[in-house]
């Protein structure tokens, strides 16, 4: 396994959620994180919320995983769980009016930042 595959990976998901969709979407987030937390390679997670006024809620979910090698098995576990529950998360997000963006990050040690 390469060093890149062994380095911790942080996945950051950002969601804009209409107020009327918040409760149902939070149930989906909770369900998803319960599945993810049970997977090998899961290290930590955090869910952050910002009330952006009456128009939307901003949610950030942060997952820390052992490395790239656990990404596909975790994604597959979530997909299996969704299928078993009859959830189409893309269709559900569209119907709720949720907008999302996803990014993957790697931890950086401060001396590495200074050298850049």
TrEMBL record:
GO terms for molecular function: monooxygenase activity. InterPro entries: ABM_dom (IPR007138), Dimeric_a/b-barrel (IPR011008). It holds the Pfam family ABM. This is Antibiotic biosynthesis monooxygenase. Keywords: Monooxygenase, Oxidoreductase. SUPFAM superfamilies: Dimeric alpha+beta barrel. Residues 8-61 form the ABM domain. It comes from Xaviernesmea oryzae.
């Amino acid at each position: 396994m390469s060093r890149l595959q062994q380095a911790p990976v942080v996945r950051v998901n950002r969601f804009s959620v209409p107020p009327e969709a918040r409760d149902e979407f939070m149930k989906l987030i909770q369900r998803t994180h319960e599945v993810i937390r049970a997977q090998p390679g899961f290290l930590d997670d955090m869910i952050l919320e910002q009330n952006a006024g009456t128009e939307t809620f901003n949610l950030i979910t942060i997952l820390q995983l052992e490395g790239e090698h656990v990404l596909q098995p975790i994604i597959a576990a979530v997909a299996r769980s969704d299928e078993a529950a009859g959830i189409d998360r893309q269709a559900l997000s569209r119907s709720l009016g949720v907008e999302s963006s996803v990014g993957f990050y790697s931890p950086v040690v401060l001396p590495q930042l200074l050298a850049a």
